[in-house]
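Homework-ish question, so no full write-ups if that breaks the rules, but can someone show me the predicted structure for this set?
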Amino acid sequence: MTRRAAASPVIVAAAGAAGGLTLYALGHTLWYGLEERGIALAFGILIAVGELARWGGRGAPGAVAREPAPLGAAGALAYALLGESGGAPTHHGVLQIIAVVAAATLAGAVPHVALGRGPSLDHLIRRILTVSFAAVCFQPLYNSGELQELVGLGPWYALWLVAVLVFTALCDAVLSAVLTRARTHWPYGPLLRDELRALVGIGSAVGATGAVMSLAVAVAGLWALPVFSAPLLLTQLAFRRYAAVRTTYRQTITSLARATEIAGYTPSGHARRVAALSCAVGRDLGLSEADLTVLEYAALMHDIGQLSLVDPIPAGATALLPPADQRRIALLGGAVVRQTGVPSDVAVVVERQADPYRDQPLTARIVRTANAYDELSRSAGPSGMLTALERLRLGTAHDYHPEVVESLSRVVGRGV
Amino acid sequence: MRPVPVPARLLIAVTALGGAACVLPVVHTPGIRWGAVALLAALYAMCEWLTRCPFLGERAPRSMGAFFPVLLAAIFLLPAQAAALAAVPGALLGRVDQRPVAPRRIWRGGQLALACWTAGQTHHALGGRASLGAGGAPDFPYALLPAAAAAAAFCLVMAVLDGVILAAVGGPGRRLATFARGAGGGFAGSLAPTLVHGLAGLMMAVLWVSPYGPFAALLVLLPMYISYWVFEQYHRERTAHQATIRALVQAVDIKDEYTRGHSERVGKASVLIARELGMPDDRVEVLRFAGILHDVGKLGVPTRLLRKDGPLTPEERRIIELHPEYGHEMVRGIGFLGEARTAILHHHERLDGSGYPYGLVGRQIPEFARVVAVADAFDAMTSTRSYRRARPVEQALAELKRCAGKQFDPQMVRALVRALDRHGWHPTVTADEPAPPRLPLQEEQLSRPTATGKAP
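A: Not a homework solution, just the prediction itself:
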């Protein structure tokens, strides 16, 4: 899977573009020397520090995975959009910006690489390409003096910066969705939608900070950098704590889900497998990130109702029980889930997992199908995969939603 | 709803009058930019109003009441009277969670007006407005000094007034202590955040007077707002997480219904011992979880065995004795539990090596496990079980002392004795408390699956 993805032409092209640009920019800058060294050094340090303070591993959820080093990103954007410094015009060009940002990002990443949790390739590609884009939109116009004639140095200038940043953020979202698509083959539309939705959160914070930093440096000189880094560090801290509690929460839910396995009601690893399969199918069907979280929690806890049974069902296989019993376990499980403080959507999915598919919400259809697949494929021995898919297809009249079953067979065929 | 005590009423009236006295001279002050005052006041009012915005419903942030960057920017930009005025509409509009609402709003208005006025005077006294550099370059790093002093003054006035009202609302005795605790704690807790807000406010003020104007200043608020919003999400998620842990515990309690509340009480007793041993707060917190979750493995033991009256056969005993290992297996993946996981695994070990699951001896048993073992035994003896009544605390402690060295760590037993001497034992979860919402984990008989062809 990863090997095929790494060879994907889209990623090769993007990495080639970013790498080539970086090398050319570094070479050019080394040959001709730096303009305004002090400013370049200050921004370089800011970006490197931001990169050092990056958070989370690659498996981190949500916003953290999307922008692991907000301070570094904001610093890079601010340097790309820097016009004046302390009232005096600057002269650094696009190539110098790319060289400084690339060098600082890599320097800040060295300790992380040494610890084995360096930035992902996608992260680096996006950083270089978006900064180049912003710089190309801004610097030539500014350095030639056209921008000053066009908008002056008043409020319109600030508005122009914001417009460039919005445009850059949109391009970054598209780029990010394309890269993820090339790596995972998830459908493009929902990926882009999730990226755009994330712009409202961390994306706008990074963009606004970039604009403020470049304006503040224009007014107050380099003193603005440390002064305004402190509030952004606060934002970063908030995101980090949020990510930490999300991780812990997920671990606790996984433990709660494992209770049925330890009590001997379900085979070991069942809940985890069903959750992984459900999420893969959910992605394939283009669910949003919020729905995927609901789906994951519900899939993890879907068997929790079995804790109420006196005697375990053989192999915990609910798919073969009479429908009335399946529904009763589902209702019991829903009642347990309601106590756990997860969103009530999760409880609804658990409660409705045994209903005929026409009465179910999509998430419950997915959990039902993934659960049945896992049970059937394990009980049927080595050829279990095909047997299970066949039995699911036979059940599409009433129990399993045909589209979900087809999506499941695609996902399984890909080898998840 | 409690009536507002007379001293508190007086205090609210005095503060409101003081606030009015700060604001009113604004009418005669020459050279006030009313546009800026109106914009900042509207901005602050909007931030406060968002907390009870009907359109956002559940998603509305709660803690925006402390959204100070706007106020601090007003303090830096405007004369003190005008800054105080800018704070008033927002304070009157803000969210109030507890009743009575009207006195609280008035109090908050007066408090903010006084704090803004004081901070504004401090700022001007240190030459803050000149350092912002209207028309020229701002005077960094000097501009940081008046800004920090103003933020500290703001924080101080807020904390002192909070302490005073706490003392006025509280009972007649110990007013001074209440005041000191409220004011000191408030000041220490909010100084650092207020200083950070001060930096954001300073940036806003600098951009506001620069050629780029108020629009650029408003951009500063976006990251601040987002960090508030994320903190809000963080708290929401944390609450949900605590509910999940509670659900785990309740599931055990209901499976083994004679021991209802046992887990929570063992958590409490473990915390008492840990504090007596002088453990740092983060370890105490983990130990609390260890106590609460120590029996979570009972979820893996058949309900029939847990509820059996009368003696257990050796085979049944062996199955029940598996619960520490089940519990450890369950919580293995929960990273934050850390040391608590070893306590769950080893809480039935005995000092002389006759315990289970591994028969560890003495210091081989992890510290947390030795604490939880004492807390567990203590609560088991002092609560009523199906087969016997609860024993009094003294008798239980005597029993613990008797077994110290053989079964329990004497150090932990001594710590528990000392802690109980000092604080007493007030288990809150008792029979007279209303039953918690029941989870449907009682035995459910299920018709046997037709696949196996057996009748129930």
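Now go work out the reasoning yourself. Hint: The radius of gyration of chain B is 30 Å.
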